[in-house]
Design a protein that fits this description.
This protein is of the alpha/beta class. The protein contains nine helices and five strands, in the order αααβαβαβαβαβαα. Helix 3 (48-58) runs parallel beside helix 4. It starts with a helix and ends with a helix. Bound molecules: S-adenosylmethionine. The site of S-adenosylmethionine has 25 residues, from helix 1, helix 4 and helix 6.
Length: 212
């Protein structure tokens, strides 16, 4: 294997590891089975209801609003936003099975003309997608890199006064976990020139409901 092939192979295994982690699979060997294992679920991570509420309360939205849903899974968030606000949404995910499902759901709800879905690695998408009003990264983990890299990449996809909606975890202060603490997230926002508008915390009871 030459240097380029080796680098390519390493990048691929990184993508696969992050993909498995984003769906809480402990090993990449599970990847081929994930669409089957998750076949009964439409919502794979973020609560579409919470995101709709956040947008309705804090972001002006109209039919011209352009939303980018990165790692959209089966499109539960994208489609419910289009249905509620009539806005244009582009959803991107690496799993072709999820995107096929999202497209069929968009047709079921008659929003396929304004809710577009494509199969792509979002590491590629963030290099070309620009000028969105809102970008969403819902329950995706480290796929775009560490928290600073992630916020900068998300920021590059939105307009100057656009909005980033990120659904992610933080750990307790001084904990050994791999997530940044609340304080570190605030530092990340400062370093990346992003203003924190609102933080919504999922309480343990909601977690249990979600898991159920
Ligand atoms: C927990 S799911 C969340 C899905 C969706 N955002 C939601 O909240 O319903 C994580 C998603 O990230 C996607 N994903 C992981 N790595 C990706 C990558 N490199 N490019 C695109 N999608 C990716 C997975 O296929 C999966 O659909």
């Amino acid at each position: 294997m030459n240097w380029f092939e080796e680098k390519g192979a390493r990048a691929m295994s990184n993508i696969e590891e992050n993909l498995a982690k984003s769906l809480t699979a402990k090993t990449t060997e599970l990847i081929p089975f994930l669409p089957y294992l998750l076949q009964d679920l439409w919502e794979l991570g973020s609560s579409p209801r919470d995101i709709k509420e956040l947008i309705a309360k804090h972001i002006p939205v109209c039919e011209e609003t352009k939303v980018l849903d990165l790692a959209c899974g089966k499109g539960a968030v994208s489609i419910q936003l289009t249905r509620t606000f009539g806005c244009k949404v582009k959803g991107i995910d690496i799993f072709k099975e999820f995107i096929a499902y999202a497209k069929s759901k968009a047709e079921e709800y008659s929003v396929e003309k304004i809710c577009e879905f494509i199969v792509e690695d979002i590491n590629q998408s963030v290099r070309v997608e620009r000028d969105y009003d809102i970008v969403i990264l819902g329950a995706v983990g480290d796929v775009l890199g560490n928290s600073i890299e992630t916020i900068l990449k998300l920021k590059s996809t939105i307009k100057k006064r656009g909005y980033i909606i990120i659904d992610d975890a933080y750990s307790g202060e001084g904990s050994e976990e791999r997530y940044p603490s609340k304080k570190q997230w605030h530092q990340v926002f400062q370093q990346t020139g992003v203003k924190l508008l609102l933080r919504r915390q999922l309480m343990i009871l909601n977690w249990l409901k979600l898991i159920e």
